[in-house]
Amino acid sequence: MSAAEIAPLLDAITFDANGLVPVIAQAHGSGEILMMAWMNRDAVAETLTTGRVCYWSRSRQSLWRKGETSGQVQQLIELRLDCDGDCLLAVVVQEGVACHTGRRSCFFNKANPETGAWDVTSQPLISPQDLYKHGTSH
Fold this sequence. Notes:
By secondary structure, the chain is α+β, with helices and mostly antiparallel strands. It has helices at 3-11, 41-50, 128-131, and strands at 21-27, 33-39, 54-57, 62-65, 74-81, 88-94, 109-112, 117-120. It is found in: Cytoplasm.
């Protein structure tokens, strides 16, 4: 997509006071919710232009191209905007795991009202040490 084609799409998004919009990554086909992250205007534009999902890292204050350190890339199938214009859904093909803990999904803690604890519903498929050879996360 060209910058001219992307501009009206970006203009329809309501970014917060920090210039960010939340985005949920969902696995294409299965519908599994993989993760939640943030995008700024540049991240959305890059994602739409390249087809590779790019987020904004609040901790590093820089663009974060999913998989740049782990190899666990997300390819964009479609990007959806919610009815209020303030949340995105990225339907993706996930290569490997999505979570920095080595799990397929970041949503592996399930509330257990009977015990008052969070039950872990899945184990890592790869160790974080193997996932991030250089000690970085995400």
